[in-house]
Specification:
Elements lengths: L1 H7 L21 E6 L8 E4 L5 E4 L3 E4 L5 H13 L7 E13 L5 E6 L4 H7 L13 E4 L2 E4 L2 H7 L3 H4 L6 E4 L3 H25 L1
Parallel strand pairs: 5-9
Antiparallel strand pairs: 1-2, 1-5, 3-4, 5-6, 7-8, 7-9
């Protein structure tokens, strides 16, 4: 059952178009680099410092201030291209987001720009049994953006596709019944007690 619940929330869809590849990375975000043919210990996650720079092994400082991810990626690639002959590398953006609501472990997490939403929820331990899978939203700049979960399931979109941004909050609310279940149960019990009392009389 938990697996089914987990799969049903697999992706999100925003009601407007976003070019996520042109997103700016903010201090606290980062990049994930993997080399397939280099023995030097370079592969790993590197984060943007408060002054807007990323300290990279062997190529020193990359200035990420007011630059989108494409530019940062090209800078890093050019730096390592100058040291190694046609290195086989992958470079992904790392966005810092907040997952809130009905997940097992709410909090801040880093997600890559190619992550599926199933992977994002997995970071937070998956959804609880009380999660309302039809009312998932993104909170951005004090605005709540509703998500079309059904469309996302069909498309199988990644972070790049659905336009998740640095600093976004993913909110999974409780179902209506989860908030009112105890009240309904108590009312039901009270009704049964009343009926039994009338019968006994």
């Amino acid at each position: 059952m938990k697996y089914l619940v987990f799969v049903l929330v697999v992706s999100l869809y925003l009601g407007f178009n976003i070019d996520s590849l042109a997103q700016e990375l903010n201090p606290g975000d980062g990049v994930r680099i993997s080399f397939l043919d280099i023995t030097d210990e370079i592969s790993g996650d590197y984060y943007i410092q408060p002054d807007g720079v990323i300290n990279m092994p062997f190529i020193n400082i990359i200035d990420a201030s007011s630059k989108d991810f494409i530019d940062i990626k090209e800078q890093i690639k050019a730096g390592y291209d100058s040291l190694y002959k046609n290195p086989k590398m992958t470079i992904y953006a790392l966005f810092r987001i907040n997952i809130l609501g009905e997940v097992q472990n709410p909090g801040f997490y880093y997600v890559t720009d190619i992550e599926k939403f199933t992977g994002i929820l997995a970071l937070a331990g998956g959804t609880t049994n009380n999660a309302d899978l039809e009312a998932i939203s993104i909170i951005r700049d004090n605005q709540e953006l509703q998500l079309d979960v059904d469309t996302i399931i069909r498309e199988g979109d990644s972070v790049t596709d659905f336009g998740l941004r640095s600093g976004d909050q993913i909110f999974i609310p409780k179902t209506w019944w989860a908030d009112r279940g105890i009240t309904v149960l108590i009312s039901g019990i009270a009704l049964i007690v009343t009926i039994v009392a009338l019968i006994i009389k």
